[in-house]
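Supplementary Methods, section 5.1.

A reviewer requested that the exact input to the structure prediction be made available. We therefore reproduce it here, unchanged from the version used in the analyses.
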Amino acid sequence: MVKDRVKGYFGGVGRRKAREKRASFNHHNKALLRHSLLQLEGFEVARELSETKEHLATLYREEQKKSQYRSKLQGLEEDEKCTRYFFRKARSRQKPILSLYNSQGDSVKNSADILRAAGDFYGRLYDTKPADGDLATAFLEGLNRVIKGGESEDPEMSIEELTRAVHSINKQKAAGPDGIPGEFYQTFWDLIKNDVAEVFQAINRERRLGESMRQSTITLIPKKGDLKDLRNWRPINLLSVDYKIMTKALTKRFQSHLPTVIAADQTCSIPERSINDNLLLVKDVILHSQERGSPLGLLSLDQEKAFDRVSHGFLQRVLKKMNFPQHLINWTNLCYQNISSRVLVNNILTDPFPIRSGVRQGCPLAPLLYVIYLEPFLERIRTSPGIPGYQLPGAGGERLRVVAYMDDITIVGTDSRSITTATKAVDDYCAATGALVNRGKSELFLSGHWHETLTTSFPVKTETIKLLGITFQRDGGGSTSWA
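The structure derived from this sequence is encoded token-by-token as follows.
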């Protein structure tokens, strides 16, 4: 109700300002015509004509800046004119989806069928996935890093941490289903901060998010491949800004615990860690393998819809096994309890469908939750006797077995057995959680001298491979640009 009043108030302000602006345009255009006619008749109105032109120029400059802001095009010069090309380029960013494959694999072109195909696809994607509970338990039993002395109290969100969260919001991001942008919260924060804090306290007490916080709108970003196939689109959740404020505050709480429970070879979202550390390690093992002729196999895994296939049940079990504070587990439950979404296709929304799996891409907390969720699999690779890893000189006897940046995982093998063991671990993890590895897009890069026959279901490469976003070549060099 409060959000409706806010939207109503500012909608009224916007409509009033639009009317005033139209009236100002009309007034100055009429004055320009009148003064021009008077000048033609010999009257001395040069000063009035100049002032009217300046007023109109100011109004047009304001409209130009607003058009540039709405287009969200990068690299525009500050004084670039809003030409016909400019507006055509802005509109071209939003290409309509003209056809999609439905659940039967047929290409549909009718608007209603396209909408239905998108709703059906994401409704199935975010449904509960079949999983083997015994295999899941086996993965959890392998976790040894836990938080000691976890907090028993349930600290309320302070004004200070909420203030930091509010001012870290990108105010140019699109608003969520409630239509209230981040700029509103940043502009009026001093007036509303106590009320917002009380709302979050009530949510925590009642264990239930507000209606608009449980909803999201999915927008689709094209990737590579056949765009009739919805697997080649990246779903981004447009979430209400108050939900983002809440999860940004929770992100800071989670990050303080991650270095304890997440091993050093996972570098995403962990304070004081960088993907560059993993890139240097991978480059070193490739160089060392080529110089010494030592056999090396780098298995790069491509997970299909990795974020979207996260099992909520398995995630909760991992959080408990790692001994996260109960209040963080409770908040995570709230974030994924009775939530729903709709897909925006060609500016039309599908019917809502429930979200029973996946972490929301677009949520500040999602990368951290995914890193936690993935840790049991990475720990299986690290501790498996069948994967001895690659030992570098000067590493103090430590062996490199796996490197990861979120869902970008590279397993390090040195013989046929290690590749077979890694493949079995991948299959078990998929069965345990509902994850899905795309074998056709995953790759196995071989280096050094292999003296045994290698049987694998993954495509084998010997010249180049993309690992952690960088293309590595057989001579050990890497491309200088990020993919």
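Residues 402 and 413 are 9 Å apart (CA to CA). These observations are discussed further in the main text.
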